[in-house]
Hints:
A: 297 residues, alpha/beta, Rossmann fold, two-stranded antiparallel sheet, 11 strands, elongated, B: disordered C terminus
Amino acid sequence: MIIAVASGKGGTGKTTVAASLALAISAAPITFLDCDVEAPNAHLYLEPELMLHKDVGLLIPKVDQQLCTACGRCAEVCQYHAIVVLAEKALVFPELCHGCGSCTLNCPEDAIREVPKVVGELEAGPAVSGINFARGTLNVSEPMAAPVIRQLKNWQPFPESAIVIRDVPPGTSCPVVESILGADFVLLVTEPTPFGLHDLRLAAQLARSLGLPAGVVVNRDGIGDSRVDEFCRKAGLPVLMRIPMERRIAECLARGRPLVKSYPEYLPRFQELYTRIQSLAAANGSEVTLAQIELGS
Amino acid sequence: MKLAISAVEPIINAPFDARFGRCAYFIFVDAETHAWKASPNPALTSGGGAGTQAAQFIAGQGAQAVVSSSFGPNAYEALVAAGIKMYSARAGLVENIFEDFVSGELEEFSPSSDSGKNARHGRHKGARR
């Protein structure tokens, strides 16, 4: 069971919810993946001892100018325009390269070989409550987060866990899609504001287009207006939990204390959240989770 | 010599398009005969690497010089490799910019003269996911 905690809008409480959900599930060993590789912060709540390290490398083409005939085939097949042929010379732009290998495969002269380039790092270790924690970090000035996330997902520094929680980056772009792909359930954390609703709609469309069941946690409940609830009702998105806007919650989070640790009354609520996620994920494909109503505005 | 100018519309009196990689059209003008033709920029809808793609496109069309407002670091590197000279214009119509080019009034682009906030020439290259 892989649960991706996403949101669309940043700062809605993804990491807050993901960390407390991980701490509330006591049944089995849990793996927690911080997929927000541009700004990982779940370690603040889960306090892992990051003992294992691994570089994330991308294979970047290197052209042998002696063998290259400037036929242009590499430039033609590169979807990212990371290799171009200009003035009878193939020119590589490593920052644009996704490391897909198409140029190398298609070069009729075998003039291209691939050299690894380090773009980030993976780290892992035990966290509080026996949680297996792993995270990726994209190197500063590197533009592409998705390869780091992909390698984080495939890395297996621990024995396989029955339950994996992925803390997804904000937005709906490539890193988010990569973080959600392969999950069994998408938990969307939102806030009842116009921004929260705008991005929730996009994130819900993304989950639906990936064919994944989704549910909503409304954080900072009590602020804003009722439009998030109206949207969820119309879209058939179940609201699985509400966390009120309270100063005491903000204070505990600001100190790096997980919600369920500071306020144990939330423990059964997060356990119930997990139970509901389990049943929704099991029912995926049935009309219970895939509402027929369009999500568009 | 053939000049490429980034433009909003496919006509010689079109407004100038300040973007290089993501301009709507390129107007190719022959500096001697003043004959021109417009081509849609294939990089406009590109998912990434628009600058390098547009550079490769205008090089393939035989341009020896190009006028836009600013050139990103990848586009700059590609255009230098292609031996295409870069010039900067601010605004106006394509035909007026062409006249300025012919009369030598356009400034040659250099990365340091570009104050655009997206221009991160040097070690940190600009790129989109």
